[in-house]
Amino acid sequence: MLKKMKNIWKRAMPVNNALNTGFVQGVSISEDMLTFFYAMRPEKKEASELMFTRVSVGNTWLIPEKVLGDNDGYDYFSPCAVRDQLYFIRSNSKKQDGVGAIYFVMLNEKMTSLPIVNERGDVKKLGTNNSIVADIVLHDPTSFKVLGRYKSDKWNGVYHLTGQASRDYIAEVRSDGYSYNSFILDYKSNPTSQMPKHIELFDTIRLAMSIYDSEIFRPLDSKVIAVRVSDKAIFRSVKIGEGYYLFSLPLGSDYNIIATSNRFVENKFLFKLDGDVVFSRFERQLPLTPMKRDYTIKVVDAETGAPVMVNVVLDNMNREEQVTVLSDKCVGGLAKMKLREGDRYELTVGGVRGYSFHNREIDLTKDKGNELVVELIALRAGASVRLNNISFATASADLEADSYVELDRLVKMLEENPSLRIEIAAHTDNVGNAKYNMKLSERRAASVLNYLIDCGVSMYKIKSKGYGMTSPLVPNDSEENKAINRRVEFKILGEE
Protein backbone atom coordinates (compact mmCIF):
# COMPACT_ATOMS: atom_id res chain seq x y z
CA MET A 1 0.00 0.00 0.00
CA LEU A 2 0.95 3.67 -0.29
CA LYS A 3 0.78 5.93 2.72
CA LYS A 4 0.50 9.70 2.36
CA MET A 5 2.39 11.73 4.94
CA LYS A 6 2.91 15.45 4.61
CA ASN A 7 1.83 15.21 1.00
CA ILE A 8 4.66 12.82 0.23
CA TRP A 9 3.82 9.35 -1.02
CA LYS A 10 6.05 6.64 0.38
CA ARG A 11 7.13 3.64 -1.66
CA ALA A 12 5.13 0.50 -0.98
CA MET A 13 7.06 -2.36 0.64
CA PRO A 14 6.13 -6.07 0.72
CA VAL A 15 5.46 -7.65 4.10
CA ASN A 16 7.36 -10.64 5.45
CA ASN A 17 8.22 -13.18 2.76
CA ALA A 18 6.77 -15.88 4.97
CA LEU A 19 3.31 -14.39 4.28
CA ASN A 20 3.82 -13.88 0.56
CA THR A 21 4.16 -17.47 -0.58
CA GLY A 22 1.35 -17.43 -3.13
CA PHE A 23 -1.37 -15.32 -4.84
CA VAL A 24 -3.31 -13.23 -2.27
CA GLN A 25 -7.07 -12.82 -2.75
CA GLY A 26 -8.33 -10.53 -0.01
CA VAL A 27 -7.21 -9.44 3.46
CA SER A 28 -8.80 -8.62 6.82
CA ILE A 29 -7.65 -7.73 10.31
CA SER A 30 -9.28 -8.46 13.66
CA GLU A 31 -10.87 -5.81 15.82
CA ASP A 32 -7.93 -5.88 18.26
CA MET A 33 -5.65 -5.09 15.28
CA LEU A 34 -3.38 -8.04 16.14
CA THR A 35 -4.67 -10.91 13.99
CA PHE A 36 -4.32 -10.80 10.22
CA PHE A 37 -6.51 -12.94 7.89
CA TYR A 38 -6.02 -13.40 4.18
CA ALA A 39 -6.87 -15.76 1.34
CA MET A 40 -3.95 -17.14 -0.62
CA ARG A 41 -3.55 -19.56 -3.47
CA PRO A 42 -0.17 -21.29 -3.03
CA GLU A 43 2.12 -21.69 -6.00
CA LYS A 44 1.25 -24.64 -8.27
CA LYS A 45 -2.12 -25.08 -6.47
CA GLU A 46 -5.57 -24.76 -8.07
CA ALA A 47 -7.43 -23.60 -4.97
CA SER A 48 -6.83 -20.89 -2.39
CA GLU A 49 -6.72 -21.27 1.42
CA LEU A 50 -7.58 -19.11 4.39
CA MET A 51 -4.53 -18.12 6.46
CA PHE A 52 -4.03 -16.21 9.70
CA THR A 53 -1.08 -14.82 11.65
CA ARG A 54 -0.52 -12.51 14.65
CA VAL A 55 1.57 -9.43 15.02
CA SER A 56 4.43 -9.59 17.50
CA VAL A 57 7.24 -7.43 18.88
CA GLY A 58 8.50 -4.84 16.46
CA ASN A 59 5.49 -5.28 14.16
CA THR A 60 6.80 -8.60 12.92
CA TRP A 61 4.28 -11.24 11.89
CA LEU A 62 4.33 -14.78 13.18
CA ILE A 63 4.48 -17.67 10.71
CA PRO A 64 1.06 -18.04 9.07
CA GLU A 65 -1.21 -21.01 9.77
CA LYS A 66 -4.31 -22.36 8.01
CA VAL A 67 -7.71 -21.35 9.37
CA LEU A 68 -9.56 -24.47 8.13
CA GLY A 69 -6.84 -27.09 7.95
CA ASP A 70 -6.21 -29.01 4.74
CA ASN A 71 -7.86 -27.69 1.59
CA ASP A 72 -10.98 -29.61 0.58
CA GLY A 73 -11.07 -28.60 -3.09
CA TYR A 74 -12.87 -25.28 -2.58
CA ASP A 75 -11.67 -21.78 -3.26
CA TYR A 76 -11.69 -19.39 -0.31
CA PHE A 77 -11.39 -15.62 -0.73
CA SER A 78 -12.43 -12.20 0.59
CA PRO A 79 -12.14 -12.96 4.36
CA CYS A 80 -13.75 -10.47 6.77
CA ALA A 81 -13.34 -10.64 10.55
CA VAL A 82 -16.32 -9.49 12.66
CA ARG A 83 -15.88 -9.91 16.42
CA ASP A 84 -15.42 -13.66 17.01
CA GLN A 85 -16.45 -14.72 13.51
CA LEU A 86 -14.66 -14.83 10.17
CA TYR A 87 -16.81 -14.43 7.01
CA PHE A 88 -15.58 -15.48 3.58
CA ILE A 89 -16.68 -16.60 0.11
CA ARG A 90 -16.41 -20.26 -0.80
CA SER A 91 -16.72 -21.64 -4.30
CA ASN A 92 -16.03 -25.00 -5.91
CA SER A 93 -12.90 -24.55 -8.00
CA LYS A 94 -13.66 -27.72 -9.95
CA LYS A 95 -17.04 -26.48 -11.26
CA GLN A 96 -17.02 -24.47 -14.46
CA ASP A 97 -19.70 -22.01 -13.30
CA GLY A 98 -17.56 -21.01 -10.29
CA VAL A 99 -20.67 -20.17 -8.20
CA GLY A 100 -19.78 -19.06 -4.69
CA ALA A 101 -21.55 -18.44 -1.39
CA ILE A 102 -20.83 -16.60 1.86
CA TYR A 103 -19.71 -18.78 4.77
CA PHE A 104 -18.48 -18.07 8.25
CA VAL A 105 -16.40 -19.82 10.93
CA MET A 106 -16.09 -19.12 14.62
CA LEU A 107 -12.66 -17.83 15.62
CA ASN A 108 -10.98 -19.95 18.26
CA GLU A 109 -8.63 -18.84 21.03
CA LYS A 110 -5.57 -19.67 18.97
CA MET A 111 -6.62 -17.23 16.26
CA THR A 112 -7.38 -14.43 18.68
CA SER A 113 -4.68 -14.94 21.30
CA LEU A 114 -1.95 -17.09 19.78
CA PRO A 115 0.78 -17.56 22.41
CA ILE A 116 4.16 -16.23 21.37
CA VAL A 117 7.71 -16.22 22.70
CA ASN A 118 9.84 -13.11 22.35
CA GLU A 119 13.60 -13.50 22.28
CA ARG A 120 16.11 -10.74 22.85
CA GLY A 121 19.88 -10.82 23.06
CA ASP A 122 23.02 -9.61 21.31
CA VAL A 123 25.72 -10.85 18.95
CA LYS A 124 29.34 -10.02 19.78
CA LYS A 125 32.82 -10.92 18.63
CA LEU A 126 34.29 -13.65 20.85
CA GLY A 127 36.24 -12.28 23.80
CA THR A 128 35.33 -8.64 23.02
CA ASN A 129 32.43 -6.22 23.27
CA ASN A 130 32.45 -5.54 19.53
CA SER A 131 28.99 -5.75 17.95
CA ILE A 132 28.37 -7.95 14.92
CA VAL A 133 25.67 -7.55 12.29
CA ALA A 134 24.38 -11.10 11.94
CA ASP A 135 21.49 -12.77 10.14
CA ILE A 136 19.30 -14.95 12.35
CA VAL A 137 17.03 -17.34 10.45
CA LEU A 138 14.35 -19.61 11.91
CA HIS A 139 13.70 -22.92 10.12
CA ASP A 140 11.12 -25.63 10.42
CA PRO A 141 13.06 -28.60 11.91
CA THR A 142 11.35 -31.11 9.59
CA SER A 143 11.21 -29.41 6.20
CA PHE A 144 13.91 -26.83 6.95
CA LYS A 145 11.63 -24.23 5.38
CA VAL A 146 12.45 -20.65 6.34
CA LEU A 147 9.93 -19.41 8.90
CA GLY A 148 11.45 -16.07 9.83
CA ARG A 149 14.41 -13.80 9.14
CA TYR A 150 15.94 -11.34 11.60
CA LYS A 151 19.09 -9.21 11.85
CA SER A 152 21.09 -7.93 14.79
CA ASP A 153 21.66 -4.19 15.15
CA LYS A 154 24.95 -2.88 13.75
CA TRP A 155 25.44 -0.44 16.65
CA ASN A 156 24.92 -2.69 19.66
CA GLY A 157 24.48 -6.18 18.16
CA VAL A 158 21.02 -6.51 19.73
CA TYR A 159 18.51 -8.86 18.12
CA HIS A 160 14.75 -9.41 18.54
CA LEU A 161 12.91 -12.46 17.28
CA THR A 162 9.53 -14.05 17.88
CA GLY A 163 8.35 -17.62 17.83
CA GLN A 164 5.14 -19.52 18.42
CA ALA A 165 4.94 -21.22 21.78
CA SER A 166 3.35 -24.23 20.14
CA ARG A 167 6.14 -25.31 17.81
CA ASP A 168 9.86 -26.04 17.40
CA TYR A 169 12.49 -24.13 15.42
CA ILE A 170 16.07 -24.36 14.31
CA ALA A 171 17.79 -21.00 14.66
CA GLU A 172 20.88 -20.27 12.52
CA VAL A 173 23.24 -17.35 13.11
CA ARG A 174 25.55 -16.19 10.31
CA SER A 175 27.74 -13.19 9.53
CA ASP A 176 30.25 -12.79 6.68
CA GLY A 177 33.78 -13.52 7.87
CA TYR A 178 32.60 -15.03 11.15
CA SER A 179 31.80 -18.47 12.52
CA TYR A 180 28.44 -20.23 12.29
CA ASN A 181 26.15 -21.04 15.19
CA SER A 182 22.83 -22.83 15.49
CA PHE A 183 20.31 -23.65 18.22
CA ILE A 184 17.25 -25.87 18.63
CA LEU A 185 14.28 -23.96 20.08
CA ASP A 186 11.77 -26.37 21.63
CA TYR A 187 8.85 -24.13 22.54
CA LYS A 188 6.47 -27.08 22.59
CA SER A 189 7.87 -28.50 25.79
CA ASN A 190 9.25 -25.25 27.19
CA PRO A 191 7.38 -22.09 26.06
CA THR A 192 9.98 -19.75 27.53
CA SER A 193 13.02 -17.95 26.16
CA GLN A 194 15.68 -20.39 24.94
CA MET A 195 18.00 -18.34 22.70
CA PRO A 196 21.33 -17.35 24.29
CA LYS A 197 21.32 -13.83 25.61
CA HIS A 198 24.85 -13.38 24.32
CA ILE A 199 25.87 -15.04 21.07
CA GLU A 200 29.63 -14.93 20.43
CA LEU A 201 31.11 -15.46 16.98
CA PHE A 202 34.79 -15.64 16.09
CA ASP A 203 36.62 -14.52 12.95
CA THR A 204 39.89 -16.45 13.36
CA ILE A 205 40.66 -20.12 13.98
CA ARG A 206 43.77 -21.83 15.31
CA LEU A 207 45.17 -24.74 13.32
CA ALA A 208 47.75 -27.03 14.95
CA MET A 209 49.81 -29.07 12.46
CA SER A 210 51.79 -32.24 13.19
CA ILE A 211 54.43 -32.98 10.52
CA TYR A 212 56.12 -36.38 10.56
CA ASP A 213 58.16 -38.86 8.53
CA SER A 214 55.68 -41.14 6.72
CA GLU A 215 57.95 -44.20 7.05
CA ILE A 216 59.18 -44.07 10.62
CA PHE A 217 56.52 -41.71 12.09
CA ARG A 218 59.03 -39.42 13.76
CA PRO A 219 58.32 -35.65 14.12
CA LEU A 220 59.92 -33.74 11.29
CA ASP A 221 61.19 -30.17 11.34
CA SER A 222 59.68 -28.50 8.30
CA LYS A 223 58.63 -25.25 6.70
CA VAL A 224 54.84 -25.02 6.94
CA ILE A 225 52.81 -22.21 5.31
CA ALA A 226 49.16 -21.49 4.52
CA VAL A 227 48.27 -19.88 1.17
CA ARG A 228 44.85 -18.22 1.10
CA VAL A 229 43.02 -19.30 -2.04
CA SER A 230 41.12 -16.04 -2.53
CA ASP A 231 44.15 -13.74 -2.87
CA LYS A 232 47.26 -16.00 -2.55
CA ALA A 233 48.26 -14.27 0.70
CA ILE A 234 50.80 -16.30 2.70
CA PHE A 235 50.39 -17.06 6.41
CA ARG A 236 53.40 -18.49 8.23
CA SER A 237 53.22 -20.94 11.09
CA VAL A 238 54.83 -20.72 14.52
CA LYS A 239 56.91 -23.69 15.67
CA ILE A 240 55.78 -24.79 19.14
CA GLY A 241 57.61 -28.13 19.31
CA GLU A 242 59.50 -30.70 17.26
CA GLY A 243 57.40 -31.25 14.14
CA TYR A 244 54.53 -29.24 15.68
CA TYR A 245 53.31 -25.93 14.20
CA LEU A 246 50.49 -23.46 14.87
CA PHE A 247 48.50 -21.16 12.52
CA SER A 248 46.04 -18.33 13.15
CA LEU A 249 43.82 -18.11 10.05
CA PRO A 250 41.00 -15.62 9.32
CA LEU A 251 37.67 -17.09 8.23
CA GLY A 252 36.05 -16.46 4.87
CA SER A 253 38.38 -18.28 2.50
CA ASP A 254 39.94 -21.69 1.90
CA TYR A 255 43.66 -22.30 2.43
CA ASN A 256 46.30 -24.55 0.91
CA ILE A 257 48.43 -25.87 3.78
CA ILE A 258 51.90 -26.72 2.41
CA ALA A 259 54.73 -28.51 4.24
CA THR A 260 58.28 -28.90 2.92
CA SER A 261 61.46 -30.34 4.38
CA ASN A 262 64.93 -31.00 3.02
CA ARG A 263 65.11 -34.31 1.13
CA PHE A 264 61.36 -34.92 1.49
CA VAL A 265 58.56 -34.69 -1.06
CA GLU A 266 56.30 -31.67 -0.55
CA ASN A 267 52.83 -32.41 0.78
CA LYS A 268 49.74 -30.22 1.04
CA PHE A 269 45.99 -30.27 1.58
CA LEU A 270 43.03 -27.90 1.18
CA PHE A 271 41.75 -26.54 4.48
CA LYS A 272 38.21 -25.22 3.98
CA LEU A 273 37.16 -22.12 5.90
CA ASP A 274 34.87 -20.62 3.24
CA GLY A 275 31.67 -22.16 4.59
CA ASP A 276 30.02 -22.59 7.95
CA VAL A 277 32.71 -22.93 10.61
CA VAL A 278 31.62 -24.11 14.05
CA PHE A 279 34.87 -24.87 15.89
CA SER A 280 37.65 -22.40 16.67
CA ARG A 281 40.51 -24.92 16.97
CA PHE A 282 41.59 -27.70 14.64
CA GLU A 283 44.35 -30.30 14.59
CA ARG A 284 45.69 -31.93 11.46
CA GLN A 285 48.50 -34.36 10.64
CA LEU A 286 50.57 -34.14 7.47
CA PRO A 287 53.10 -36.90 6.67
CA LEU A 288 56.05 -36.22 4.38
CA THR A 289 57.50 -38.94 2.17
CA PRO A 290 61.32 -39.15 2.02
CA MET A 291 62.98 -38.74 -1.35
CA LYS A 292 64.48 -42.02 -2.52
CA ARG A 293 67.38 -42.79 -4.83
CA ASP A 294 67.40 -45.86 -7.04
CA TYR A 295 70.59 -47.63 -6.05
CA THR A 296 72.27 -50.72 -7.45
CA ILE A 297 75.01 -52.80 -5.81
CA LYS A 298 76.86 -55.14 -8.13
CA VAL A 299 78.70 -57.99 -6.46
CA VAL A 300 81.46 -59.78 -8.42
CA ASP A 301 84.34 -62.18 -7.87
CA ALA A 302 87.45 -60.06 -7.22
CA GLU A 303 89.60 -62.27 -9.43
CA THR A 304 87.31 -63.30 -12.30
CA GLY A 305 84.72 -60.48 -12.36
CA ALA A 306 81.92 -63.06 -12.47
CA PRO A 307 78.69 -62.11 -10.66
CA VAL A 308 78.21 -63.52 -7.17
CA MET A 309 74.77 -64.23 -5.67
CA VAL A 310 74.99 -62.99 -2.08
CA ASN A 311 72.96 -61.37 0.67
CA VAL A 312 73.12 -57.56 0.69
CA VAL A 313 72.18 -55.72 3.90
CA LEU A 314 72.21 -51.95 4.47
CA ASP A 315 71.68 -50.57 7.97
CA ASN A 316 70.63 -46.92 8.07
CA MET A 317 72.98 -45.09 10.41
CA ASN A 318 70.58 -42.11 10.76
CA ARG A 319 67.46 -43.94 11.82
CA GLU A 320 66.09 -47.41 12.56
CA GLU A 321 65.83 -48.83 9.07
CA GLN A 322 67.30 -51.88 7.37
CA VAL A 323 67.27 -52.62 3.64
CA THR A 324 67.87 -56.26 2.73
CA VAL A 325 68.22 -58.02 -0.62
CA LEU A 326 68.59 -61.78 -0.21
CA SER A 327 70.77 -63.87 -2.51
CA ASP A 328 67.80 -65.32 -4.42
CA LYS A 329 66.79 -61.76 -5.39
CA CYS A 330 70.33 -60.69 -6.29
CA VAL A 331 69.92 -61.67 -9.96
CA GLY A 332 73.17 -61.60 -11.89
CA GLY A 333 74.93 -60.26 -8.81
CA LEU A 334 72.76 -57.10 -8.92
CA ALA A 335 70.97 -55.92 -5.80
CA LYS A 336 68.46 -53.14 -6.58
CA MET A 337 66.95 -50.96 -3.87
CA LYS A 338 65.71 -47.49 -2.97
CA LEU A 339 67.73 -45.53 -0.42
CA ARG A 340 66.76 -42.35 1.42
CA GLU A 341 68.50 -39.23 0.18
CA GLY A 342 70.89 -37.66 2.67
CA ASP A 343 71.26 -40.74 4.88
CA ARG A 344 74.32 -42.85 5.68
CA TYR A 345 74.21 -46.62 5.39
CA GLU A 346 76.48 -49.40 6.58
CA LEU A 347 76.75 -52.01 3.82
CA THR A 348 77.36 -55.68 4.59
CA VAL A 349 77.76 -58.19 1.74
CA GLY A 350 78.20 -61.90 2.37
CA GLY A 351 76.44 -65.03 3.46
CA VAL A 352 77.60 -67.23 0.55
CA ARG A 353 79.81 -70.25 1.06
CA GLY A 354 83.25 -69.94 -0.52
CA TYR A 355 83.43 -66.12 -0.37
CA SER A 356 84.51 -63.58 2.16
CA PHE A 357 82.24 -60.86 3.48
CA HIS A 358 82.57 -57.16 2.75
CA ASN A 359 81.42 -54.09 4.62
CA ARG A 360 81.71 -50.38 4.04
CA GLU A 361 79.83 -47.10 4.48
CA ILE A 362 77.60 -45.53 1.82
CA ASP A 363 77.17 -41.82 2.51
CA LEU A 364 74.37 -40.32 0.40
CA THR A 365 75.16 -36.83 1.69
CA LYS A 366 78.38 -36.96 -0.36
CA ASP A 367 77.95 -39.81 -2.82
CA LYS A 368 76.07 -38.56 -5.89
CA GLY A 369 76.19 -41.86 -7.74
CA ASN A 370 73.62 -44.61 -7.84
CA GLU A 371 75.80 -47.71 -8.30
CA LEU A 372 78.50 -49.50 -6.34
CA VAL A 373 80.67 -52.44 -7.38
CA VAL A 374 81.72 -54.76 -4.57
CA GLU A 375 84.55 -57.24 -5.21
CA LEU A 376 84.36 -60.34 -3.04
CA ILE A 377 87.45 -62.40 -2.41
CA ALA A 378 87.12 -66.14 -2.97
CA LEU A 379 88.18 -68.18 0.06
CA ARG A 380 91.14 -69.91 -1.60
CA ALA A 381 94.47 -70.76 -0.01
CA GLY A 382 96.71 -67.68 0.08
CA ALA A 383 93.87 -65.16 -0.16
CA SER A 384 94.11 -62.26 2.29
CA VAL A 385 91.09 -60.19 3.41
CA ARG A 386 91.25 -56.94 5.34
CA LEU A 387 89.03 -56.58 8.41
CA ASN A 388 87.50 -53.11 8.51
CA ASN A 389 86.70 -51.08 11.60
CA ILE A 390 89.08 -52.97 13.91
CA SER A 391 90.48 -50.52 16.43
CA PHE A 392 92.63 -50.57 19.55
CA ALA A 393 93.43 -48.09 22.24
CA THR A 394 96.54 -46.05 21.48
CA ALA A 395 99.75 -48.10 21.99
CA SER A 396 97.54 -50.94 23.31
CA ALA A 397 96.32 -54.36 22.23
CA ASP A 398 92.95 -53.93 23.92
CA LEU A 399 90.10 -54.16 21.39
CA GLU A 400 87.69 -51.26 21.37
CA ALA A 401 83.97 -52.07 21.45
CA ASP A 402 83.25 -50.93 17.87
CA SER A 403 85.50 -53.78 16.64
CA TYR A 404 83.09 -56.50 17.76
CA VAL A 405 80.63 -56.07 14.88
CA GLU A 406 83.26 -56.86 12.26
CA LEU A 407 84.72 -59.73 14.26
CA ASP A 408 81.25 -61.23 14.67
CA ARG A 409 80.95 -61.23 10.89
CA LEU A 410 84.19 -63.22 10.73
CA VAL A 411 82.85 -65.69 13.27
CA LYS A 412 79.73 -66.20 11.14
CA MET A 413 81.82 -66.70 7.98
CA LEU A 414 83.91 -69.38 9.71
CA GLU A 415 80.70 -71.11 10.81
CA GLU A 416 79.48 -71.12 7.20
CA ASN A 417 82.83 -72.46 6.01
CA PRO A 418 83.82 -74.91 8.79
CA SER A 419 86.76 -76.51 6.93
CA LEU A 420 88.75 -73.26 6.63
CA ARG A 421 92.01 -72.63 8.48
CA ILE A 422 93.05 -68.97 8.82
CA GLU A 423 95.79 -66.76 10.16
CA ILE A 424 95.06 -63.49 11.96
CA ALA A 425 97.68 -60.97 10.80
CA ALA A 426 98.21 -57.58 12.47
CA HIS A 427 100.26 -54.72 10.89
CA THR A 428 101.48 -51.31 12.07
CA ASP A 429 102.74 -48.13 10.43
CA ASN A 430 106.38 -46.98 10.75
CA VAL A 431 105.89 -44.77 13.80
CA GLY A 432 108.28 -46.01 16.54
CA ASN A 433 111.06 -48.60 16.30
CA ALA A 434 110.68 -51.88 14.48
CA LYS A 435 111.04 -54.09 17.59
CA TYR A 436 108.29 -52.24 19.46
CA ASN A 437 105.93 -52.34 16.47
CA MET A 438 106.55 -56.07 16.01
CA LYS A 439 105.67 -56.83 19.65
CA LEU A 440 102.60 -54.54 19.45
CA SER A 441 101.31 -56.24 16.29
CA GLU A 442 101.79 -59.70 17.83
CA ARG A 443 99.79 -58.72 20.91
CA ARG A 444 97.03 -57.21 18.77
CA ALA A 445 96.80 -60.30 16.57
CA ALA A 446 96.62 -62.46 19.70
CA SER A 447 93.85 -60.23 21.11
CA VAL A 448 91.73 -60.82 17.98
CA LEU A 449 92.44 -64.59 18.11
CA ASN A 450 91.35 -64.77 21.74
CA TYR A 451 88.07 -62.97 20.91
CA LEU A 452 87.32 -65.51 18.15
CA ILE A 453 88.03 -68.44 20.46
CA ASP A 454 85.74 -66.91 23.10
CA CYS A 455 83.02 -66.82 20.40
CA GLY A 456 83.36 -70.55 19.79
CA VAL A 457 85.90 -70.76 16.96
CA SER A 458 88.17 -73.80 17.35
CA MET A 459 91.72 -72.90 18.38
CA TYR A 460 92.95 -75.55 15.97
CA LYS A 461 91.60 -73.64 12.97
CA ILE A 462 93.17 -70.26 13.69
CA LYS A 463 96.53 -68.84 14.58
CA SER A 464 97.88 -65.31 14.97
CA LYS A 465 100.97 -63.52 13.76
CA GLY A 466 102.31 -59.98 14.05
CA TYR A 467 104.12 -58.41 11.08
CA GLY A 468 104.96 -55.05 12.62
CA MET A 469 105.92 -52.52 9.96
CA THR A 470 107.36 -55.05 7.53
CA SER A 471 104.45 -55.31 5.06
CA PRO A 472 103.06 -51.86 4.25
CA LEU A 473 100.40 -51.59 1.54
CA VAL A 474 101.33 -48.01 0.65
CA PRO A 475 104.26 -45.70 1.54
CA ASN A 476 104.05 -44.28 5.07
CA ASP A 477 104.30 -40.72 3.80
CA SER A 478 100.99 -39.31 5.01
CA GLU A 479 98.56 -39.77 7.83
CA GLU A 480 96.04 -41.25 5.39
CA ASN A 481 98.54 -43.84 4.17
CA LYS A 482 99.66 -44.68 7.71
CA ALA A 483 96.02 -45.39 8.58
CA ILE A 484 95.85 -47.80 5.62
CA ASN A 485 98.94 -49.65 6.80
CA ARG A 486 97.62 -50.01 10.37
CA ARG A 487 95.37 -52.98 9.78
CA VAL A 488 94.19 -56.45 10.77
CA GLU A 489 93.71 -59.13 8.08
CA PHE A 490 92.89 -62.77 7.93
CA LYS A 491 94.73 -65.06 5.54
CA ILE A 492 93.38 -68.36 4.17
CA LEU A 493 95.87 -71.11 5.07
CA GLY A 494 93.85 -73.89 3.47
CA GLU A 495 91.14 -76.38 4.35
CA GLU A 496 91.05 -79.37 6.63
Structure, explained:
The protein is mostly beta strands. The protein has 5 domains: 97 residues; 86 residues, Immunoglobulins (Immunoglobulin-like, Sandwich), CATH 2.60.40.10; 87 residues, Immunoglobulin-like; 80 residues, Immunoglobulin-like (Sandwich), CATH 2.60.40; 112 residues, 2-Layer Sandwich (60s Ribosomal Protein L30, Chain: A), CATH 3.30.1330.60. It contains 4 helices and 36 strands. The radius of gyration is 45 Å and the shape is rod-shaped.
Identify the overall geometry: rod-shaped
- Level-2 CATH architecture of the largest domain: 2-Layer Sandwich
Number of alpha- plus pi-helical segments: 4
Count of beta strands: 36
Distance between the termini: 121 Å
Defining key terms:
single chain, 496 residues, mainly beta, Immunoglobulin-like, 5 domains, 5-stranded mixed β-sheet, 4 helices, 9% helix, 45% strand
Describe the protein's topology.
Elements: E1 4-5, E2 8-9, E3 22-29, E4 35-42, E5 49-54, E6 65-66, E7 74-82, E8 85-92, E9 100-106, H1 109-112, E10 116-125, E11 135-139, E12 146-151, E13 158-164, E14 168-174, E15 181-186, E16 198-201, E17 204-213, E18 223-228, E19 234-236, E20 238-241, E21 244-250, E22 255-260, E23 264-265, E24 267-271, E25 281-290, E26 292-301, E27 311-316, E28 322-325, E29 334-340, E30 344-350, E31 358-363, E32 371-376, E33 384-387, H2 404-416, E34 420-427, H3 434-454, E35 462-466, H4 479-485, E36 487-495
Parallel strand pairs: 10-16, 17-25, 26-32, 34-35
Antiparallel strand pairs: 1-2, 3-4, 4-5, 5-6, 7-8, 8-9, 10-13, 11-12, 11-14, 14-15, 17-21, 18-19, 18-22, 20-21, 22-24, 23-25, 26-29, 27-28, 27-30, 30-31, 33-36, 34-36
